[in-house]
Design brief:
- This protein is of the alpha/beta class.
- It folds into two domains: 30 residues, no CATH class; 181 residues, Rossmann fold.
- The protein has nine helices and seven strands.
- The strands form two sheets. A five-stranded mixed beta sheet has the order 1-2-7-6-3. A two-stranded antiparallel ribbon has the order 4-5.
- The protein binds zinc ion.
- Zinc ion (ZN) binds next to helix 2.
Length: 241
């Protein structure tokens, strides 16, 4: 019985065939992360939201490709917590339709939401920085890592929405000025917006003219952005020609 258990555990940890990272179906294709059923459910799109609930010094707009639900949610967790960093290229494919809409000329640089150095040591890589560097390359604009996390905050995912904001207030600092720059701030998931908005506040404090967020996925609540929960802010200024 023990042997059987070990074999099973071994199979789970070092699968000999591709397991679907969305639903765990072991018949997933070798070349893909998702089975056909999950792949059909994924539906990447070009989404943009803004909200009057966000602080004035936060992001003016948040862009994303997927909703944080199955199968995107388990994929992102594998990427973030289990070190499946090759998923970055998969997510880039999902986000690629956003590139011509975002337009390189509307931004001066791409900046990832930083991890605290202690968290970075534990995790080995910053998932946001990995995505940000790919996006910067696609847009053909520089990547800035001047934003630092000065406090090792608790994991936002473990906190109720009310505490998330308090958890990240004053957690970010810029090492260099962002004078007049329009910054595309990249993270993996946009939930309440607390992390992105606090990070954006630090970037604006450092002189940035505008900060917009780009994430792989956003909370399902943004589906209701035209309803009672999310009222739109006035659209950001049109790009200078
Ligand atoms: Zn699946």
């Amino acid at each position: 019985m023990m042997r059987r258990f070990l074999e099973r555990a071994g199979e789970f940890l070092f699968p000999t065939r591709a397991v679907c990272l969305g639903c765990g179906d072991p018949s997933g294709l070798e070349a893909d992360w998702l089975c056909d059923r999950c792949r059909a459910k994924l539906k990447p799109g070009v989404h943009a939201v803004s909200s009057v609930e966000w602080t004035e010094d936060g992001v003016s707009q948040a862009w994303f490709a997927l909703y944080y639900e199955n199968p995107a949610a388990p994929l992102i967790r594998q990427f973030k917590y289990n070190g499946v960093y090759r998923l970055a290229l998969f997510f880039l494919d999902c986000m690629r339709p956003l590139i011509p809409v975002l337009r390189a000329e509307r931004f001066d640089c791409v900046a990832p939401v930083p991890l605290h150095r202690k968290r970075l040591r534990e995790r080995g890589f910053n998932q946001a920085e990995l995505i940000a560097s790919l996006i910067a390359r696609e847009l053909g604009i520089p990547l800035s890592t001047a934003v630092k996390r000065t406090r090792n905050t608790r994991r936002q995912a473990k906190l109720p929405p009310g505490e998330r904001r308090r958890n990240v207030v004053g957690a970010f600092l810029c090492e260099r000025p962002f004078d007049g720059l329009r910054v595309l701030l990249v993270d993996d998931v946009f939930t309440t917006g607390s992390t992105a908005n606090n990070c954006a506040a630090a970037i604006r404090d450092a002189g940035a003219a505008d900060v917009q967020a780009l994430t792989i996925a956003a909370s399902r609540r943004y589906r209701r952005q035209n309803g009672a929960v999310y009222r739109k802010k006035p659209a950001p200024e049109p790009p200078k020609s």
